[in-house]
Automatic annotation (TrEMBL):
Name of the protein in its database record: Polyamine aminopropyltransferase
Protein's job: Catalyzes the irreversible transfer of a propylamine group from the amino donor S-adenosylmethioninamine (decarboxy-AdoMet) to putrescine (1,4-diaminobutane) to yield spermidine.
Binding site for S-methyl-5'-thioadenosine: 31, 106, 137-138, 162
Single Gene Ontology BP annotation: spermidine biosynthetic process
Organism for this UniProt entry: Paenibacillus antri
Length: 275
């Protein structure tokens, strides 16, 4: 008998995949966590019934959270990642030698624990001496660290459960205050097919706080609709002003210097959402 995992992405649509093994199936203090082995996507982490990451396509999301902001900021020495307990964004951040310290704050220590155990190619840099891992509330961490970071990256789940406050205007204001005078922040902002209202709300809120706001996209097949957006807020530096020739070389599978500017070219219906 075959076992299949299905993520119900809307009331009328979902994705499904064949599962060959279940490693963990646990209700943590914050969310329902599963770590499964899938035939098509390899080892996969899900939280509250939503795919967070899989071995086969994880590089797209993690590279696109990290690199556009880090190449836009001229000297990103201190970086904060809120969420992201699987370690993928931290892995990409560590590819930038200008980063002296990266702090990861995830509210659920089980995500970190199981990612280290079952997703070593993703979580492998969490023990890097340049990385500090904190199990705690990212919202409160930001509130207590004014003018502390050059770049802040919000690697959250969709706005359900413990992640709801990470999509609030108050959180974005806190991020602004936690950034230095030329700081940059980036957050995943879901997909335009099913969450158009969310993208519009986030874009409006961030524009009321940051002078430079850019939305960009990527293709991530295991995420709802496959088309995913990210929103960048910057106090000073515009990612569209970055020239491809100035971007240093580092190992990637999706992001490239030429892709940097292209990622900010949105389909017309997405462009209309954020005008």
């Amino acid at each position: 008998m075959d076992l299949w995992y299905t993520e119900k992405q809307t009331d009328n649509f979902g994705i499904t995949m064949k599962v060959t093994r279940t490693y963990e199936n646990e209700q943590t203090d914050f969310q329902h966590l599963t770590m499964i082995e899938t035939e098509e996507w390899g080892t996969m982490l899900t939280l509250d019934g939503m795919v967070m990451t899989s071995v086969r396509d994880e590089f797209v999301y993690h590279e696109m959270v990290a690199h556009p902001a880090l190449v836009t900021h001229p000297n990103p020495e201190n970086v904060l990642v809120v969420g992201g307990g699987d370690g993928g964004v931290i892995r990409e951040v560590m590819k930038h030698p200008k980063v002296k310290k990266a702090v990861l704050v995830d509210i659920d220590g089980k995500v970190i624990e199981y990612s280290k155990k079952y997703l070593p190619t993703i979580a492998g840099e969490l023990d890097n001496p340049r990385v500090e891992v904190i199990v705690g509330d990212g919202y409160m961490h930001i509130a207590k660290h004014k003018n502390a970071y050059d770049v802040i990256m919000v690697d959250s789940t969709e706005p359900v459960g413990p992640a709801v406050e990470l999509f609030s205007k108050g959180f974005y204001q806190g991020i602004y205050e936690a950034l230095k005078e030329d700081g940059i922040f980036v957050a995943q902002t879901d997909n335009p097919w099913f969450k158009a209202d969310l993208i519009q709300t986030v874009n409006r809120d961030v524009k009321e706080i940051f002078p430079i706001v850019r939305v960009y996209g990527a293709n991530i097949p295991t995420y709802p609709s496959g088309l995913w957006t990210f929103t960048m807020g910057s106090k000073k530096h515009d990612p569209l002003a970055v020239e491809a020739a100035s971007i240093p070389e580092f190992e990637t599978k999706y992001y490239t210097p030429r892709l940097h500017a292209a990622a900010f070219v949105l389909p017309k219906f997405v462009e209309d959402l954020v005008k």
